[in-house]
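Why does this matter for the project? Reviewers at the last site visit asked to see concrete outputs rather than summary tables. In response, this paragraph embeds two records directly. Each consists of the residue sequence and, immediately after it, the corresponding structure tokens. Nothing has been edited or filtered.
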Amino acid sequence: MMRAVPRAAVNGIELEYDTFGSRNAPPLVLIMGLGAQMILWEEDFCGQLAERGFHVVRFDNRDIGLSSQLDAGGIPNVFEVMQAAAAGKPVSAPYTLSDMADDTVALMSALAIDRAHVVGASMGGMIAQTLAIRHPRRLLSMVSLMSTTGDPALPPPTPAAMQVLMTPRPFDRAGNIASGLEAWRVIGSPAYPMDEPTMRDLFARSFDRGYHPAGVARQMAAIFASGDRTHALGSVTVPSLVIHGDADPLIPVAAGRATAAAIPNAELLEIAGMGHDLPRGTWPILIDAIAAHATRAAARAA
């Protein structure tokens, strides 16, 4: 792993980031999900993508980890936000997914990257979709992983997964880690058992880097304020791959299918027994799919 610089000043904020692999290789930007720090793109995962011939960039989204915290935006009432969205009412938020997509483009510019392959997981997939809509010239290809179009008519999380999403995590270190593990047992992949020591370490490092629940609330408000992308996705020309686990309890597989159906010529890969996580057992499938998709996109563009 090569650490680039501690932070990049972008879009009026600062983003913490890492890079892996040769700077001369095709860039591949990884975008993590709601409340998730960049370290959930594990170093070995990034390293294996770098070994496939990519210059890999991972970063903390705004309001999470070691990137800028936007506390001046206040703390949204998540229940009220969800109720307003369910009723079809406008949702007010300090920022939207469009702002977060613009952050990504600004980070690319700060790193002298004109165009990149982009992979987004969960909320990161929503940001990747927004990039394909707003900034198609900056993308070589796009992968939307365990994500959704934002269509409110799609199936909701299971009751257990919804409880995980809405239950505040404890502020003490031990309780926070234990809560994270319990949540992962609910949303994780039934066919790929959780590696508890690895996940315990990830939750511990996330807590130590910076536990910031107010930022998570603002990110959630951004999701609901950004609405349904289905119609806009119909204009996407970026080569797109949608990957989704068929056992995802948080964002059911129907959302992945809807995403692939909304994007012209998108490919869909469903992974049997995969939930809403990135267990090591899925890495060969994911890395092969991401690398092959990027290679095909590059060949078509040549």
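We now turn to the second protein, recorded in exactly the same manner.
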Amino acid sequence: MTQAYLNVIERFQWRQSLLAAPAMFAIILFGVVTGRVAEAATAAGAALSVGMVAGRSLGYFRWDSMLLVVAGTAFTSMLGSLAGQSLPIYAAGAFLAAGGVGAGSLTHPQFWLIYLQLAVAFIVGGHFPSDLPTAISHSGTVLAGSLLQAVFVASIALVFPTLAKPMAPIAKHTGDVSPLVFGLVAGTVVTATLIGADKLGLSNLYWPAMTAMLILRPNLLHTQQRVVQRTLGTLVGCLIAFVVASIDPHGPHYIAGALMVAFAFTFAMQPSPRTNYGWFSGSVTVSVLLLLAFAQTDIVQDAELRLLSTIMGAGLAWAGALVLEYVLASPQTGDEPEGGL
């Protein structure tokens, strides 16, 4: 019986949760104590991105991936805020960001997760369009959250070195699809999603765009799997977040406590050969919606928008995979890189 429990535990990235979750707790606690929940939410989002690469190493030194994300997300977040003032510029930046993620997943899988976090920071940054001084201020909050996560992770690893064992390298895709072609398709799909979301009047343009970027894979089979897993995970996550938040919707301490649990599960369920992407999608959805509830937004409206964004992004990602499969004759082979939010 004990061995069975251990086998279940080992299916999750519990070491990564112990490494990365404490910084999230500290940021949320800061928001509760100071009342600066908006700043805490932004910093927590940045810390989440850094935490997602805490278990990775490029091989130069143990924390190389994490430090690159710390430095890069602050900069790309600022660029996104500036670009967000103009939809054409923002869409062009999203095209380049998503295209880089797509091509990078086929050429440099160990750098791919870093590309992904930088692209996410740019696309999210566009949700906060601002002039240069305000963009720099927003970027400073992102940097503060990122740095705090890095300090916490390195400090915990120093005290508990067994937690710092790197995760297995990301598998390289072995199919014949061209990185350039896949990058162009990925960039086009994300740009179309972004513009479509704007035409529909969706308030969070970055949600469907990010969904499309994270679901699209170089072949139809893997994309279909991600569409189903992401959609079901998001649906379940929305229901859980709604139920949890409805218990005490105006209690910041209660929401903060629930949010800490959600973040711990998110890090534990991050994609790997041992975990399911649907579980991860559900835990991310719970974390995002509770983080917004912590910032005193409408949980029902946010859940509806999250689900609609997922359906829209998943649909366009599927369309992009169909183009690769039937128009460009992309093969149904290859390993799928891990990761994604």
